């Protein structure tokens, strides 16, 4: 079984974006005497890099250049997690039983700039502009309103991308995920005929799932409004789709972890679907959630409904 | 400027920004949200105290040139206050309080609490001892 | 066919997990509170089984003051659930007019409310955790509920509540509120919650109320966002 190792985007991005093409070295003239100290001797005319004029590294589209020029995202943190006690409840052996309490086991990614294979996200110009505007609003100290800031459901991707636990509960024909943060819910129907999903559009979208072997594949569509996929504002339009592949991954002898591979499909903001991955550790000791009551603050009638933030311009 | 003091109040903001704290995810402001070089004082009525860990916030109703306004002042969890003998029930809504705080860099009224004095006489202050004790 | 077998094995696994999790926190067979429930007789008032709410003299005044504020429609001055969609807390959540689900999984009995996606949990088997940030000292709307089974009855004791909630739509309380609940199935489709309220500053003696629920068909709740209602100047409780 493959064990994917999620990587932290930021340092790799910094490295890649810092590379300049000026590594070409032309060797001219006849070779000199053999160098001392075991240095590599190149044949005449050979260079230490690609031929002159050849592009080095990936070629960025104009949209990707806009995103590459943005100030980098902040460093994701992960709080220390206590080790599981010896008598902790363990996940079941059934691969189709994802039940339990899980929490992110990698540092958060504030801006998912690369897919899980290391390629830059394939923004359209519209996508690059929206993301750029959001990031710059943060830097200017005048951040845009988003669902999270006004105590509304932030969509399934942001909801999972936190350092707070969630619990998966499986019933006959549907799966319910309860989140500590925002007292969130994510409901997945496994049988839309038998257990219908609500008709009206919801902030969390409409999720239909099916089992593919030991992987729960969930398609989420029909968002009530555009959502932010991360705190920097990687965009998804209301017509976008998320395909989440969720499975328990076991590494013999250790506690299984939950892997969620999310494919982002949104022709408005991306020229092609692209895929990111997150992993979550088993956290039975966090099954009792802290109360989350953002309504007390956000609902205060004596303060403005936009929590002092700036409305995002509409294109 | 006392770096410890700065880090003490930047931490809740930083922590809030990365979604570590169980409080409203207030739009992930820039980290340096408070002017730690300044301490401003205000008097007013305690409208409410929203307790949380690692940070809480209070809403103070005050007079600004004769007009009644509200400001929000962030502080630590009940753990921090308990070290100076204060519990949530000491903070009564409607109480007249005196607060000092490091103002928001944005210019919006309010900021990060440095001290508070209640009408009961009880008070809390971000003293050297409190900082050294940690939170 | 494979799907049904998978489902049966899943149910078996779940039952196995529930009883394995912690011996005393697992209910005996036949006392399964899980399901979708709805209050049988909708009300906004928690009525004592006998007599009136036994207010102390001091706090009867606070109760009367709330009545006045209600008449004046100054809701935010006494009821932030109505004005802001703040969590109604315990025991007021027991009066929710919409449906709720009860889950008994992983050592926690979770009340999963249709209204505003509110959540309330009773700890029946999760060990206490290190509390470095002082989370345990934070008064919350739902407080902390510790539960155990007595025969077929789930007994929960809640403390650590905030004084920002009401017992129902008017009755105030303080930080010393203690709410004991006894949940049991009266029959397969009827759930009873016997609620005892104590707060020595506010009430001369503990008082008890009973709320009954009827089982509902399985369903996926629609996403309810109370803040959208009040933003549109509609009531926090739509039904």
Brief account:
The complex is a heterotrimer of chains A (315), B (135) and C (239). In chain A, 13% of the residues lie in helices and 21% in strands.
Outline the fold blueprint.
The complex is a heterotrimer of chains A (315), B (135) and C (239).
Chain A: H1 9-18, H2 62-68, E1 100-104, H3 125-139, H4 156-160, E2 166-170, E3 174-179, E4 185-189, E5 206-212, E6 215-221, E7 227-228, E8 235-236, E9 241-249, E10 257-265, E11 274-282, H5 295-298
Parallel strand pairs in A: 4-5
Antiparallel strand pairs in A: 1-2, 1-11, 2-3, 3-4, 5-6, 6-9, 7-8, 9-10, 10-11
Chain B: H1 3-17, E1 40-50, E2 55-64, E3 67-76, H2 78-82, E4 96-103, E5 110-117, E6 123-125, H3 128-133
Parallel strand pairs in B: 3-5
Antiparallel strand pairs in B: 1-2, 1-4, 2-3, 4-5, 5-6
Chain C: H1 2-21, E1 35-39, H2 57-71, H3 80-84, E2 100-105, E3 108-113, E4 119-123, E5 144-150, E6 153-159, E7 178-187, E8 190-198, E9 207-216, H4 226-231
Parallel strand pairs in C: 4-5
Antiparallel strand pairs in C: 1-2, 1-9, 2-3, 3-4, 5-6, 6-7, 7-8, 8-9
Structural summary, described in words:
The complex is a heterotrimer of chains A (315), B (135) and C (239). With 315 residues, chain A is of the alpha+beta class. Chain A is 13% helix and 21% strand. Chain A is built from 5 helices and 11 strands. In chain A, the strands form 2 sheets. Chain A has a 9-stranded mixed barrel. In chain A, strands 7-8 form a two-stranded antiparallel ribbon. In chain A, helix 2 (62-68) runs parallel beside helix 3. The longest helix of chain A is centred in the middle third of the chain and has 15 residues, at 125-139. Chain A is globular. Chain B is of the alpha+beta class. Chain B has a domain at 40-125: OB fold (Dihydrolipoamide Acetyltransferase, E2P) (Beta Barrel), CATH 2.40.50. Chain B has 3 helices and 6 strands; from the N terminus they run αβββαβββα. In chain B, strand 1 (40-50) and strand 2 (55-64) form a beta hairpin. Residues 1-31 and 128-135 of chain B have low confidence and may be disordered. Chain C is of the alpha+beta class and 239 residues long. Chain C contains 4 helices and 9 strands. In chain C, a hairpin with an 8-residue loop joins strand 8 (190-198) and strand 9 (207-216). Chain C starts with a helix and ends in an 8-residue tail after the last helix.
